[in-house]
From TrEMBL:
Residues 569-656 form the RCK C-terminal domain. It is a multi-pass membrane protein. It comes from the Bacteria. GO terms for molecular function: antiporter activity; monoatomic cation transmembrane transporter activity. This is Potassium transporter. It comes from Pelagibaculum spongiae.
């Protein structure tokens, strides 16, 4: 590697570190950072990197490893579980999107080869951004998220034939294209069968031997070798390297080495894929953006509105509610990483004019830039839309619920049949206690009914569904899902239908306790606090503590409403959660106002700020903050409980007396 090329790599790495560090503070995905770095240092802006061809050759390996890990994650059981959404909604979205853009492009006078490339690139969305954002917001298991993931899964599958077709578009006539595609499919099938035959026998043995040595380096090298070797074999056959890597991933995805292989490959993939996105950003011309801003803004808006609208309609046709359908549409309304791969492949074969490629590339990038905000505000946007009389909403027909609940008396009504709801149902069965569950996930409901569970499809936040489930005759209502706003809605309806019923609610975050209690919950299972108590129970048992002492400590903590467990000392992730109660320690230096002041006076002065003094640390020992005659000394550490604003006010009081 020449010194010049090394210097250019250092420029890319330095810029990437700075930009991605900044975007991570804003909770934006790293992909956007790499794209912005490429735009800034590329030949159309600062021109800090000129040997773009050498960088592209290395960066292409990132696409190979991306397809390899996609193959590893390819799950036949997941595909089967989501089959109706994957092949129904996902298939329809890709076909309609590709077909619509293709014919519109032809109508605008674009060549049919370029029209196909553009339509394929625009039809796909960003699996990386969507899944990361939904995971961060703990929304991966909602109905709208499952619909979005099903669509993304089909799009990932559709990217494979797109990558085969694009290089074949350089051929002239339709007959030649059909012949070449047929030949490519035949070669792909032969290679797949050959790899499957050899791979199923050879690959598990290779990784078994690598694992037996206990060498992480050997295991990682074996994974890289398999991915790159199969990519090279398919390349020799005239097919995409990405296709070979995908096939190798599929084969290894069925072995028990799958997760370890993915973990070893991931660092290489992320770095090389980052380089690939930098090269994509380099292709974007900054002067072009300034010359055609309204064209790019209009195209970006068209992509978001049309994709979101299409997915919303398809989701509603599949009998999802309006709100869930709109959410799913907003989740997948952007361009995706495979769109960049397709455009880069087309650029190698000169299939799309530069100006048109710039417009499409810029619109895909800006649509991805907007995506995190769309996902965060999807709930608000969906609820702002007017409800419509023609929506296909199965929640308004509770006849099936009435039939299942008609013979039940003094039963437990479970709202939400996820992991917690299913576990509760099985435990109740052990004691022959009757129960009925409501769940609005159609796939889970179908699978549960097939397994003989007493669950029906219905949204418990609808008053008619609760009434049909016999809440007036039930002995207990259990809300097992983790959605406090929806839980409040269920509680309000339950209280109006059955004022005397006992209601138990699962709550993960303590900041929602007041809302749930105000709504009418009798008992709240505080998930995090109960997990802490169970952990303490096990630890004290291992230490030989008497079970009587342990039970008394746990009972006392519960009776005091978990006051002992309230708040925790923050880490880096808490910066964004300014309203979350937490603990914070302040050491009184020589100039602190609170030194030599009675603690009772300090508390009185702090009262308006809202923070609470939980304990005092003095010379490595804890002092009870309830002592009436306690005086604060120099170098005492005061442990506070409160949100960000309250703690800042308390710190100001302790140090300056304000």
């Amino acid at each position: 590697m020449s010194e010049h090329l090394l210097a250019e790599f250092l420029v890319m790495l330095s810029a990437s570190v700075l930009v991605i560090a900044l975007l991570s503070r804003l909770a934006l995905p790293a992909i956007l950072g790499f794209l912005l770095v490429g735009l800034a240092i590329g030949p159309h802006a600062l021109a800090l990197v000129n040997d773009q061809h050498s960088v592209e050759l290395i960066a292409e390996l990132g696409v190979v490893l991306l397809l390899f890990t996609l193959g590893l994650e390819f799950s036949i059981p997941q595909l089967y579980a989501l089959r109706y959404r994957v092949f129904g909604i996902g298939g329809a979205q890709v076909i309609i999107s590709t077909g619509s853009v293709f014919f519109i492009s032809l109508w605008l006078g674009i060549s049919w080869q370029a029209a196909f490339v553009i339509s394929a690139a625009m039809a796909l969305s960003s699996t990386a951004i969507v899944t990361r954002q939904l995971s961060q917001q703990a929304k991966l298991h909602t109905q709208s998220s499952q619909t979005a993931i099903a669509i993304l899964l089909f799009q990932d599958l559709a990217a494979i034939p797109f990558l085969i077709i694009v290089p074949a578009l350089t051929l002239g006539s339709g007959d030649q294209l059909a012949s070449e595609l047929g030949w490519a499919v035949a070669k792909g099938a032969v290679i797949f069968l050959a790899l499957l035959t050899v791979g199923r026998w050879l690959l598990p043995r290779i990784f078994h031997e690598a694992a037996q040595t206990g060498s992480d380096e050997l295991f990682a090298l074996a994974a890289l070798l398999v991915a790159l070797l199969t990519a090279w074999i398919t390349s020799l056959a005239g097919l995409s390297m990405a296709l070979g890597a995908f096939l190798a991933g599929v084969m290894l995805g069925e072995t028990h080495f799958r997760h370890q292989i993915e973990a070893e490959i991931r660092p290489f993939r992320d770095i090389l894929l980052g380089l690939f996105f930098i090269t994509i950003g380099m292709k974007l011309s900054f002067p072009f953006l300034l010359e055609h801003p309204w064209t790019i803004i209009g195209l970006t808006a068209a992509i978001i509105v049309c994709k979101a609208g299409l997915v919303t309609i398809l989701s509603m046709i599949s009998r999802s509610s309006m709100i869930d359908s709109v959410r799913a549409g907003l989740y997948v309304a952007q361009g995706g990483e495979f769109g960049f791969v397709i455009l880069a492949l087309a650029d190698q074969h000169h299939l799309v004019p530069d100006a048109l490629s710039q417009q499409v590339l810029a619109s895909l990038i800006f649509s991805m830039l907007i995506t995190p905000f769309l996902i965060r505000e999807a709930d608000w946007l969906a609820k702002k839309l007017p409800s419509q009389p023609w929506k296909l909403d199965t929640q308004q027909t509770p006849e099936e619920v009435v039939i299942r609940a008609s013979t039940m008396r003094q039963h437990v009504l479970i709202c939400g049949f996820g992991r917690s709801g299913q576990g509760l149902g099985r435990l109740l069965d052990q004691l022959s206690i009757r129960w009925l569950a409501l769940d609005r996930d159609p796939i889970r409901t179908s699978e549960s009914l097939t397994a003989g569970e007493r669950v029906v499809y219905g949204d418990a936040s609808h008053r008619a569904i609760l009434s049909a489930a016999g809440i007036e005759r039930a002995s207990l209502l259990v809300i097992s899902f983790d959605n406090w706003s929806l839980a409040c809605k269920v509680i309000n309806h339950a209280r109006s239908l059955a004022p005397e019923i006992s209601i138990l609610v699962r709550c993960r975050r303590s900041r929602h306790l007041d809302e749930l209690i105000a709504a009418g919950a009798n008992s709240i299972l505080r998930e995090g606090d109960e997990s802490t108590l169970q952990l303490a129970n096990r630890v004290l048992q291992q230490l030989g503590t008497s079970q009587t002492v342990i039970d008394e400590l746990i009972h006392q903590t519960r009776n005091q409403d978990y006051q002992l467990l309230q708040g925790y000392l923050p880490g880096i992730r808490l910066e964004m959660q300014t309203q979350q109660p937490r603990r914070h320690a302040i050491t009184l230096d020589a100039n602190a106002w609170a030194i030599d002041k009675p603690l009772i006076d300090v508390k009185q002065k702090m009262k308006r700020g809202g923070a609470i003094i939980k304990t005092i640390r003095r010379r490595n020992r804890s002092i009870n903050a309830e002592q009436a005659d306690l005086v604060l000394h120099r170098f005492d550490t005061v442990v506070l409980l409160g949100n960000q604003e309250q703690i800042e006010a308390a710190e100001e009081t302790l140090l300056s007396g304000n």
